[in-house]
From TrEMBL:
The keyword Ribonucleoprotein does not apply. One of its GO terms (biological process) is regulation of DNA-templated transcription. This is Uncharacterized protein. GO terms for molecular function: transcription coregulator activity. Residues 125-138 have a biased composition (Low complexity). Residues 96-138 are annotated as: Disordered. The keyword Oxidoreductase does not apply. InterPro entries: KIX_dom_sf. It comes from Acorus gramineus.
Length: 138
């Protein structure tokens, strides 16, 4: 059963978005890889399946962060990155749950119209993504 919450997020292009942001986005992607690596144990980081999924989850989360931010300053705010990254992961999980539920009820692959930005995930991803939440800062 899907988790309660807003409908799956559709990435949108905002007025402040620009192609010149690619280097800035690369920097934030590197920071996401760093905090995810720092937050997980050596056992988790050495898991082959986790390693294969890491780039997919990080890139999808960054796309959501970029789309949700109201400004370049908000997007690059490292002080809120931890919370925003977890919110993006929640968004991905809700989207995956909704896609899996639609697939179960309709018999189609996703049962949802194609979304802009993010590709439709495989139904088995929600369980894998649960491991992506970053633990609370201590």
């Amino acid at each position: 059963m899907p988790r309660p919450g807003p409908r799956p997020y559709e990435c949108v292009r905002r007025a402040w978005h620009s192609e010149r942001h690619q280097p800035m986005r690369g920097t934030l992607i590197q920071e996401l890889f760093r905090i995810v690596g720092d937050a997980h144990s050596v056992d988790t980081r050495s898991n082959r399946e986790w390693q294969e999924k890491l780039p997919v989850v990080v890139l999808r989360a960054e796309e959501i962060l970029y789309s949700k931010a109201n400004s370049e300053t908000e997007y690059m705010e490292l002080g809120t990155l931890w919370e925003r990254a977890n919110d993006a992961i929640d968004t991905i999980i809700r989207r995956d749950d909704d896609a899996a539920a639609a697939s179960d009820s309709s018999g189609s692959e996703s049962g949802l119209p194609p979304q802009k930005g993010l590709s439709q995930p495989a139904p088995q991803q929600p369980e894998l993504l649960l491991e992506w939440h970053l633990p609370p800062l201590t």
